[in-house]
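Milestone M4 deliverable, item 7.
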Amino acid sequence: MDWVSPENVIAVLTALLGVVVTFAVLAIERRVPRRKRVGYRVQLDTPVGDRVTRLFNGRTDMADATLVLLRIENDGGVSIGREDYNQENHGLTVRFTRRKVEVAAASQAPFDSDALVTTDSEIKLPKVPLNPGDYFKVLVLLTGGAAKDGITVTGPIRDGGADGGVHVNHSATFDDKPPRFSTAARRLTVALTVCVVALASIIVFRGDVPPPIGCARGTLTVTGSTAFEPVLSDVARQYERDCAGATVVVDARGSTAGIRTLADAGAEHGKGSPALIALSDGPKPDGYPQLRDTRVAVSLFTLVLNDGIPLDNLTLENIRALYRGDITNWRTLGGPDLPVRLVSRDADSGTREVFQRRVLGRNEPANSSRNCAAKDDPEAVVIRCELDSTEQVLSTVASLPGALGYTELRSGTGLKGLHRIAVDGRRPQVDELGSSPYPYREIEYAYTWGQPAPGSLTSSFLVYLGRGGGQDVVAGHGHLPCATPKGLRICGEG
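Output delivered:
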């Protein structure tokens, strides 16, 4: 029997032990309800008094200042998503009895401190997805009360039970004794450890370690959408960390340029699929029947306006009139006396193609300016320029008075000199996808030349991006993965 080898025998024994443990866990879970739970604890609550007064130029009202450090964590057995928070505009609320919030900052958090909304005695926390064991911290400077005055965190959280899913938990102190394992648990743990160590030792000393299951070795190039480039770069780095021997090169050139690059590479490659994936904001143009698509995520886009124009909302008809050239000065819409300057992407851009199809309902006007500030064509009805990348559009809109442009949603945040604007009073919100009429959104497609071979790096990375470990990265960048229940419905509708 060729299969009888030391590593196979140990692997079978480990698998059998794993099956026994799995059925035992399932039996326990049938008796224990699975709830979504958020625990919080106060790790620091101390007066700082005169030390803070000196930092605030001698403000006398800081003499009773206190400093609080809160730890918020998922201490349940079920992941919590943004949709599980039942508050409309925020996730959890922190309340301080008899104390006033002066300033708050997030620590070890997947969001910026700017996302914290503070009032006199409350902090509203954003909707933060938390896997079991995940946590973040909030550091707060308060005045007006004493240390140890009441601190509460409230939800509610969907499926959180009678207490709303939010409760106080406690960290172990040095005097606490750890719980003792039963004899059976100790024996099972030792047996599993011995099996795993023996199997790992055999594999290591044999010297022919295969890549982890689902991984592949080699070099892959990912091209296409510049709007999706931040996601691809992060997923590529994570894949390389998870899958030794793989190199993923991200070379974003624009959606249409990426499609053409893939088509040319496929035609030159001959049989099979080249190690190349092209990402596109929206479906590919006609004329590329050999390309096979995989729907990855739903992306939101936004219009951005120079801060010198104090408008926060444009109607769909306003936008179309601006790009037709019917409105050439911002004073027509109640803004200052400044000419309208349209900063657009080049013809290879998927972001531009989505804007034309979903918002304008027609093509943008012809390019009339090389410097984006003045017309090169005196017959043109509006000043409009074309740039090669999202970064160029954002920097130009931020520095050029009267400039209007567009970008992928996450790229338009945290930048000085420009602001995002609503369309018909609606803003791009991932949580509202599928229910909001906000028009500027599109499905992100990944294209390959035909069907990539099973086990190839191309096939492995596609699975990783759409349904594997890369899915959390996609969601973390503000996109809705197509493989989620909500994403399946929206991506299926197109």
